[in-house]
Design goal:
- It is a single chain.
- This protein is of the alpha/beta class.
- It folds into 2 domains: 223 residues, P-loop containing nucleotide triphosphate hydrolases (Rossmann fold, 3-Layer(aba) Sandwich), CATH 3.40.50; 210 residues, Rossmann fold, CATH 3.40.50.880.
- Helix 1 crosses helix 8 and helix 6 runs parallel beside helix 7.
- It is globular and about 70 Å long.
- It starts with 5 loop residues before the first strand and ends in a 6-residue tail after the last helix.
- The relative contact order is 0.11.
Length: 465
């Protein structure tokens, strides 16, 4: 058994203020000398990136749909700390999940980890009704340990006083903080939600603004006490998948402000197999580095960097030649966009790498959002046919109409994919789709990348030319 002080910050809905409260708590705790680790419920990359910024440690995603409860517990136990505080930010509303029963919700995660819950309530234009909402959460699932409330968007001292009295008298739990009504979210936003911290400007000023917002408004001692009251978690030897030997392999991955969507575990598992990871920036590199055995292109925002990427024609040409030469390339979402012939956004068209014979278009509304499930049913460089892959997608782009349709590897069982009923377009030794996979949830991903890289090292041309 291990004592791991922890709490889960939940909300009544998306946009309740969970992220601001979570970041504020992490910054206050660090300033007070408390060691912290952060986790994000669900598959979201951007919130996890902000949690990493505030905690100064990699933030891990925990999702029972992707991973299953045992793997979620194992991941938490592997990355949580015994001294300090482990903060888990929920997603959407506390009981919002996969279906009407709330399967895979933040509440389910809280029960899986025996984590006490602090509920963020956006109190805009309400007083006693806030108590009714909190009381409803208490009664909907008594197994969830709801220990306190943080009020957000409070309109002055009188409003706060009424809210506190109503909630504490009706619900018998404390109000642990109250944040004032603000003119705007202190965190920068755009079309997919928050701007990733890698692209945000004025981070020192932002940290000061967040601390100013939450200091003397959150009861840090009470929050610490709740986290430390969490029961010890039973530990057991972790059985991690055996990986193929990747020693001597050089695997590149795109890493800069345009490509930021990587689960830490995906890179860590490649390294655990013994591979050497080579970070590459398509914004600044003149060409692919020589000697690569495989390439991993994660998601991000190529559309907001499209002029710079398009101008780097020499790099795009070296990428296209490497793909035509058989370099194994696994690409997700933004990576698919980069490998397309062109990218259209806000009335402008930009040349991309031209590996695939189609363009992509970026729209003002999401073209796919939520959990995804695929069945591999056609030849591809990375997965055995018959494999079932669970992931998620969140994209505003889609492939422009093209004839004939490109080859694909996967039937879509759940989600939008990149073509009607299909995902995972393939050409040469390249596979690209809109579904993001988590290596801990899908260990076959690591095995597939290492195996493809190994085969290329034996049979391919590692000069990448």
């Amino acid at each position: 058994m291990r004592a791991m002080p922890r709490l889960l910050v939940a909300g009544l809905s998306g946009g309740s203020g969970k992220t601001v409260v979570s970041l504020g708590m992490l910054l206050l705790l660090r300033r007070a000398g408390v060691d912290v680790r952060a986790f994000k419920k669900g598959p979201d990359y951007i919130d996890a990136g902000w949690l990493e910024w505030a905690s100064r440690h990699p933030a891990r995603n925990l999702d029972t749909f992707l991973m299953g409860a045992p793997t979620v517990r194992a991941s938490f136990l592997r990355n949580a700390i015994a001294e300090g505080v482990n903060l888990i930010e929920g997603n959407r509303g506390l009981f919002d999940g996969f279906d009407a029963a709330g399967t895979h919700s933040s509440a389910v995660l809280a029960e899986t980890l025996a984590a006490p819950v602090v509920l963020v309530v956006n109190a805009t234009r309400m007083t006693r009704t806030a108590a009714a909402l909190v009381l409803g959460c208490q009664h909907l699932d008594p197994h969830v340990s709801l220990r306190g409330v943080v009020l957000n968007e409070v309109n002055g001292q009188r409003h706060e006083k009424i809210l506190r009295a109503a909630i504490e008298s009706a619900c018998s739990i404390p109000v642990l903080g109250a944040l004032p009504r603000s003119a705007a979210n202190p965190l920068p936003e755009r079309h997919l939600g928050l701007v990733p911290p890698q692209e945000a400007r004025g981070m020192e000023r932002l940290e000061e603004d967040l601390l100013r917002l939450v200091e003397n408004r959150l009861d840090l001692d009470a929050l610490l006490s709740i986290a430390r009251s969490a029961p010890p978690l039973e530990t057991a030897p972790e059985e991690r998948p055996v990986l193929p030997d990747g020693r001597g392999l050089r695997i590149g991955y795109f890493k800069d402000s345009a490509f930021t969507f990587y689960y830490p575990e995906n890179l860590e598992e490649l390294e655990r197999a013994g591979a050497e990871l080579i970070p590459i920036s398509p914004l600044t590199a003149s060409e692919l580095p020589p000697g690569l055995h495989a390439l991993y292109i994660g998601g991000g925002f190529p559309e907001t960097h499209a002029p710079e990427i398009s101008r780097n024609a020499g790099f795009l040409e070296s990428l296209r030649r490497a793909c035509e030469g058989g370099l194994p390339v696994y690409a997700e979402c933004g990576g698919l966009m980069l490998l397309a012939r062109s990218l259209a956004w806000k009335g402008a068209h930009y040349a991309m790498a031209g590996v695939f014979p189609f363009g992509v278009e970026v729209f003002a509304a999401p073209q796919g959002h939520g959990y995804a499930e695929l069945r591999v049913d056609a030849p591809n460089p990375f997965f055995p046919q018959g494999s079932v892959l669970r992931g998620h997608e969140f994209h505003y782009s889609r492939i422009a109409p093209v004839t004939p349709l490109p080859a694909t590897a996967c039937a879509v069982l759940r989600g939008a994919g990149c073509l009607p009923g299909r995902d995972g377009v393939t050409i040469h030794k390249v596979m690209a789709g809109y579904t993001h996979l988590h290596a801990t949830a899908t260990p076959g991903w690591t095995t597939g990348v290492i195996a493809a890289a190994h085969d290329y090292g034996i049979f391919g041309n590692t000069g990448n030319d």
